[in-house]
Amino acid sequence: MSTEFPFVVVPEELHKVFGVPVPGTHLFHKEGPQEETSFWADAVFHLAGPCVSPGGVSMYAPVSRAAVHKRLKDGKLSGFFFHINQRKRNFFGVDLSTRELAIGYIPVSECKAWKAELEQRAIDQGIVTEKELLGDKPDWHGHFLSWNSRWAKEQARKAKGGKK
């Protein structure tokens, strides 16, 4: 198992786009108006690839949201956050109070690396075997998604030469 975690590398010249990292972490905070969020998100996706919100990490690793926030604060996971902090006016010139909102993304590559780290730790401790992790018949192609699909059942029936 590799001892180096594959953090997303943010070059120093991009700190003006993503914000300066919080010391001792890989957290990048940027503040600005709501109009900048789409440009900021595009830059994050270009640099880090696919990302999820902190709550979405559990789709890739068997962890809780609390574990995600702890790992972020401990500097063991990269996080990109944009804080909307400016008021807006509508077309009629009326001030709209915008609640302070933070948009956060965590790279999927780091979520998958975290899962691999957890699995390897469980194997090393003898909690589980690699065969138990993969199962007897791994489903790499996602056929389990169509187990109850009318279309899939119809295709299987046609393939067997059966009538409708």
Textual characterization of the structure:
The mean pLDDT is 86. The chain is built from 6 helices and 6 strands, in the order αβαβαββββααα. The relative contact order is 0.15. Helices cover 35% and strands 16% of the residues. The radius of gyration is 22 Å and the shape is flat. β4 (88-89) and β5 (95-96) form a beta hairpin. The chain has one domain. The chain has a 4-stranded mixed beta sheet with strand order 1-3-6-2. A two-stranded antiparallel ribbon has the order 4-5. The protein has helices at residues 15-18, 37-48, 65-73, 108-124, 130-134, 150-159; strands spanning 26-32, 51-52, 78-84, 88-89, 95-96, 101-107. It is an alpha+beta fold.
Biggest sheet: strands, sense, closure? Answer: 4 strands, mixed
Order of strands across the main sheet: 1-3-6-2
C-alpha geometry: flat
Q: Can you tell me the residue ranges where pLDDT is under 50 for at least 5 consecutive residues?
A: none
Secondary structure tally: strands? 6
Q: Count up the helices.
A: 6
Beginning-to-end CA distance, first to last residue: 52 Å
Mean pLDDT: 86
Map the helices and strands.
Elements: H1 15-18, E1 26-32, H2 37-48, E2 51-52, H3 65-73, E3 78-84, E4 88-89, E5 95-96, E6 101-107, H4 108-124, H5 130-134, H6 150-159
Parallel strand pairs: 1-3
Antiparallel strand pairs: 2-6, 3-6, 4-5
Task: Report a brief summary of the structure.
The protein has 164 residues and is an alpha+beta fold. It has one domain (12-159). The chain has six helices and six strands, in the order H-E-H-E-H-E-E-E-E-H-H-H.
